[in-house]
Amino acid sequence: MVLSKRIFDLVAAISLSGLLLPVMAVVAIAILLIDGRPVFYVSERMKGPNTGFRLWKFRTMKPDASDSGPSGGNKQWRVTRTGAFLRRTRLDELPQLWNVLRGDISFVGPRPPLRMYVERFPEIYNQVLKSRPGITGLASVYYHAHEEMMLAHCKNAAETDAMYSKNCVPRKARFDLIYQRNQSICFDIEIMLKTVFKKLR
């Protein structure tokens, strides 16, 4: 990662942590009171072709030890009472500020993929993961809603996996590589602002 990008991430993460800690406390208490424990969902994601890390989110689904793969229509029954709101507003991703502070991810970059897809599509992710993964990115701004709509129609894990593999992986990679070729602090700020204002709308 370029030093200027890392410095920007640290300054922004520290500043936002101070502002958002009260919001995170309210969200955590709401999950605890309404849905019970655990409050957080921790899952392995990849920051390099062979390097994983633990990604933190607020829990939005009922726990399932056998859970794997992306969320499709087959998992909708597991979304908790607070989960739908947290996902819609992306408040579930606030704990990822910790991952930014640790250097696992950046604010802007490709969304960190599951190991199963990195291993299945090495020719794609060897290139995509030359950029540090991010909380948001071009694909999050321009493709996330379409991805959710497609996966929502999937009725089982196999169907969700097939749809994600065939349509989402290559299309998101195109956005990620466009970002990679045009990466700059100004571009990062633009993507962050578009992410926020898109959710406000």
UniProtKB/TrEMBL annotation:
Question: Which keywords annotate this record?
Answer: Exopolysaccharide synthesis, Transferase
Name of the featured protein = Sugar transferase
Which GO-annotated molecular functions does the record name? phosphotransferase activity, for other substituted phosphate groups
The similarity annotation says: Belongs to the bacterial sugar transferase family.
Q: Does the keyword Cell membrane apply?
A: no
Domain Bacterial sugar transferase: residue ranges: 5-199
Q: Which GO terms describe its biological process?
A: polysaccharide biosynthetic process
- Organism (species): Roseovarius nubinhibens
